[in-house]
């Protein structure tokens, strides 16, 4: 297994670098690297690695969904909530309908088997979509209308909706389904339970991190452990009730951001570092699951079914955005962002065959082919259109996040040590302001001058013999071009 991990790191980094040189998303290179090194081509992945790849992929997906949760702001969710709910089901229904129209003629499937195939193909891949949306959020692109947030929320709900539909229709096809209404009722129940299971530990962690000043890596590991525990709860309860644990994972990040934004920024920054490794694990192992020999069996007929389904899906996506306030180019971007398929197809593509469905082998072949065709094309399309369609908000709040991340600033309430003097101070105030040039007195820019984001902080000298809130204070203005905070200061933690 150690040899396989070495291959993942070396080839993943190399593929990421090479594809980005040609302005292609690095995840496309990682997927292809996984295909080449997987057991179906060069066979460089050990059997032990493939046996545990599901757990590795789940942990990596948890990391990216946690990052997504730390980007979900309440105001953005309010703006896109209605459109996100509609997008979570209408495009999938359209795609399933498109597959059901074509699969009986092109693949010789029954109508029921076509529906099973449609539910497998209809799931959008959060593994492909979420990292790209987070990247746009961090750049401030499309944030004025909340477009990346819309796609983040809709894609997560889409998976819950489609997987429940898949379970229902597969049960009917195999004769094991007894109560369709009860199964369909699991969709809202699993969503609500998943969110509640995420909010509860989220509130607890906020109180824990507010009371105790832990180092950011330790806080990040605690959050990650709680998020992984949610997926274990989902697996444990799967025989009794459905729980959308991945929505709960996002809810943990959301509630921490709502209740303690400073802590959320610190954890998110560490998760971004951890994601470098998790990204390689996720996409290389997803690629390794792709059996190109099976995909080849689907041939042109399978490709035609996939692209017909995507055409219907695109119509459904466009209709979902009818009253969203987005212009036609922005609707086009959302349509393309809803194309990639990878994680769900890799996870459930073989289930119909294992359940004894007569067309199970061909269903698996089409599912695998959908990954090969749509994951790279979708990722490239999202990156290309996003840079050309999504507006860059000049006074985006996310520009302040860039300053925090680059300078590694402390949060309000933390104690800091001045390295030169050895004096301990406490951060008692922080503001995000827009200034011009080196002006540190006004946030109003004279005509013709450009505003730039600045973070203002005020420190109180920590005196054990003095009363809290009294004594000497000092203030600092931090620009993006300043030296890192750790150059002159050190943050003091309890643990």
Q: Would you spell out the secondary-structure blueprint of this structure?
A:
Elements: H1 2-21, H2 26-37, H3 47-51, H4 53-69, H5 74-87, H6 90-106, H7 111-121, H8 126-139, H9 147-174, H10 180-211, H11 216-237, H12 245-259, H13 261-288, H14 292-320, H15 328-337, H16 343-348, H17 351-354, H18 360-389, H19 398-407, E1 415-418, E2 424-436, E3 451-461, E4 473-478, E5 489-492
Antiparallel strand pairs: 1-2, 1-5, 2-3, 3-4
Helix pairs in contact: 1-2, 1-13, 2-13, 4-8, 4-11, 4-12, 4-13, 5-9, 6-7, 6-14, 7-9, 7-18, 8-9, 8-18, 9-10, 10-11, 10-12, 11-12, 11-13, 12-13, 14-15, 14-18, 15-18
Would you mind describing this structure in some detail?
With 495 residues, this protein is of the alpha+beta class. It folds into two domains: 2-389, Na+/H+ antiporter like fold; 398-492, SH3 type barrels (Roll). It contains 19 helices and five strands. It has helices at 2-21, 26-37, 47-51, 53-69, 74-87, 90-106, 111-121, 126-139, 147-174, 180-211, 216-237, 245-259, 261-288, 292-320, 328-337, 343-348, 351-354, 360-389, 398-407, and strands at residues 415-418, 424-436, 451-461, 473-478, 489-492. Strands 4-3-2-1-5 form a five-stranded antiparallel β-sheet, with helices on one face. A hairpin with a 5-residue loop joins strand 1 and strand 2 (424-436). The longest helix has 32 residues, at 180-211. The two termini are 34 Å apart. Mean pLDDT is 85; it is low at 440-448.
Measured between the Cα atoms of the first and last residue, the distance is 34 Å
Ranges with pLDDT <50 over ≥5 residues?
440-448
Q: Biggest sheet: strands, sense, closure?
A: 5 strands, antiparallel
Number of domains: 2
Report the β-strand fraction as a percent range: 5-15%
Q: In percent, how helical is the residue content?
A: 55-70%
Please state the structural category: alpha+beta
What characteristic shape results from the CA principal axes? elongated
**Total beta strands:** 5
- Helix count from the secondary structure assignment: 19
Q: Order of strands side by side in the largest beta sheet?
A: 4-3-2-1-5
Give the overall pLDDT as a whole number. Answer: 85
What quaternary form is this?
Answer: single chain
The radius of gyration is 24 Å
Assign the CATH class of the largest domain: Mainly Alpha
Order of helices and strands: HHHHHHHHHHHHHHHHHHHEEEEE
């Amino acid at each position: 297994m150690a040899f396989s991990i070495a291959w993942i790191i070396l080839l993943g980094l190399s593929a990421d670098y090479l594809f980005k040189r040609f302005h292609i998303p690095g995840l496309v290179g990682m997927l292809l690297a996984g295909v080449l090194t997987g057991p179906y081509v060069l066979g460089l992945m050990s059997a032990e690695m493939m046996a545990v790849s599901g757990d590795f992929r789940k942990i990596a997906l948890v990391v990216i969904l946690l990052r997504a949760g730390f980007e979900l702001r309440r105001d953005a969710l309010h703006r896109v909530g209605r459109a996100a709910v509609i997008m979570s089901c209408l495009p999938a229904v359209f795609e399933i309908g498109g597959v059901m129209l074509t699969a009986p003629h092109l693949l010789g499937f029954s109508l029921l088997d076509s529906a099973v195939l449609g539910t497998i193909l209809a799931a959008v891949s959060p593994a492909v979509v979420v990292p790209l949306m987070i990247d746009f959020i961090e750049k401030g692109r499309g944030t004025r209308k909340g477009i990346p947030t819309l796609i983040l929320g809709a894609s997560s709900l889409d998976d819950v909706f489609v997987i429940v539909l898949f379970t229902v229709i597969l049960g009917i096809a195999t004769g094991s389904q007894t109560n369709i209404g009860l199964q369909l009722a699991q969709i809202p129940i699993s969503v609500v339970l998943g969110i509640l299971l995420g909010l509860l530990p989220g509130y607890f962690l906020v109180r824990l991190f507010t009371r105790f000043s832990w180092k950011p890596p330790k806080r990040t590991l605690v959050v990650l452990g709680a998020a992984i525990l949610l997926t274990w709860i989902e697996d444990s309860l799967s025989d009794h009730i459905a729980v959308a644990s991945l929505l709960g994972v996002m809810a943990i990040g959301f509630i921490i951001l709502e209740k303690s934004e400073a802590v959320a920024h610190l954890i998110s920054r560490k998760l971004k570092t951890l994601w470098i490794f998790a990204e390689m694990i996720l996409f290389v192992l997803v690629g390794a699951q792709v059996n190109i020999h099976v995909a080849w069996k689907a041939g042109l007929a399978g490709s035609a079914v996939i692209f017909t389904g995507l055409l219907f899906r695109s119509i459904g996506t466009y209709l979902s955005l009818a009253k969203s306030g987005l212009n036609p180019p922005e609707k086009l971007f959302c349509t393309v962002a809803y194309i990639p398929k990878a994680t769900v197809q890799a996870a459930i593509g073989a289930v119909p065959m294992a359940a004894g469905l007569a067309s199970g082998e061909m269903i698996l072949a089409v599912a695998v082919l959908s990954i090969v065709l749509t994951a790279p094309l979708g990722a490239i399309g999202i990156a290309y259109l996003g840079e050309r369609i999504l507006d860059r908000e000049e006074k985006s709040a996310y520009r302040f996040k860039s300053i925090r991340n680059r300078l590694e600033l402390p949060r309000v309430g933390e104690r800091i040590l001045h390295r030169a003097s050895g004096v301990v101070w406490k951060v008692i105030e922080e503001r995000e302001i827009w200034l011009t040039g080196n002006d540190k007195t006004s946030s109003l820019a004279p005509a013709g001058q450009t505003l730039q984001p600045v973070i203002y902080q005020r420190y109180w000298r920590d005196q054990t013999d003095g009363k809290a809130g009294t004594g000497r204070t000092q203030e600092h203005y931090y620009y993006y071009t300043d030296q890192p905070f750790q150059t002159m200061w050190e943050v003091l933690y309890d643990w």
